[in-house]
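User: Can you model how zinc ion sits in this protein?
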Amino acid sequence: MSIVVLKLPDVKHKTEERPKCCPYCKGETFQRWGRVSKPVKDVHVRQVKVYRYRCCSCKRTFRHYPEGNTRADQTERLRLLAVLMWTCGLSHRASRWILSGLKVLVSHMTIWRDVQAEAQAHKKRKQWKAMRVVGLDGAYVLGWGEKQPVLVAVDLGTGEPFALGYINEYDPQAVRRWLAPLVQRHGITVIVTDDLFSYKVVAEKLQLGHQVCQFHVRRWVGKTLKQLQETVPKEWLWVLEQVRELLEFLPPDGSKRLFALWKQLPGRRSKPDQARLALEQLRDLLLRLSQDWQRYCVFQSEPQVPWTNNPTERAIGRMKMRARTVRGYKSWPGMESGLLLAGTFAR
Ligand SMILES: [Zn+2]
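Assistant: Here's the modeled complex, given as structure tokens:
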């Protein structure tokens, strides 16, 4: 999924177009009131011509900037370029060095402010966006001298992260407190996660549809079956085969069939303080899969729901790449906005 803004904004060095309305009173008639030359920082343009206008209604004067310019020293193009370099993993210092090769001198602090401003704008754009299907996954990022747990929410419609929680995904209460307002604001109806216990609790409490990533399920069930293959008495090996087949085809009656298998197996014989026998482990597996079956199959009835959580993992990968150099963040909000931005731009 490529979401990068490939087209940098145009920068004009002058404009003959008159302003549409007065920035103060929205009046629509003006007089020209002089012209100034303004030096700008940009990769092509060095100077722009800016007309001043006087509003005929409120008599105030204002500057009308050519496309791609604002009252800032740098053009919009240069600002976005600096942000792109940063999200690609370059340090402020390295970005400044590249720009100086293009004969543009930009300070460390300017790039820092550009990144912060873009991150805020990104958050604002996403603030009320409807997102039906959302991927959640925990990660660790370096910050304040050690690894910090974060929870990342990704809009699976676009693959872009839109919220970051400074919480541990293993804590269902914390996940729920953080997720509930997001569910309200964005109209989330389905979450896609790995099969960590806390997500099941949260999905139930918040009455959300829940798809468990099938890569995760296949990985751990495959591992468990492989171990059981060695330990389960031979006359029960056919059960393992059935489980494999059910997971591969995910039939709608899978839950019932797993439950029926569970009933066929002998009940618990080991004492509570003894290790579980292989057959008992198999029985536990059957019950767990039977109970979670609906969570494996949401994607079959809802085309917008993916069957794995890969887009979320990719966004986290992009963040981690950037996270190596966000150690300098002094506060969580700064870190949050920086990481969200980093996770958004695909390479
Ligand atoms: Zn006016």
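A couple of observations from the model: Residues 278-301 form the longest helix (24 residues). Confidence is low (pLDDT under 50) at residues 1-5.
User: Helpful, thanks.
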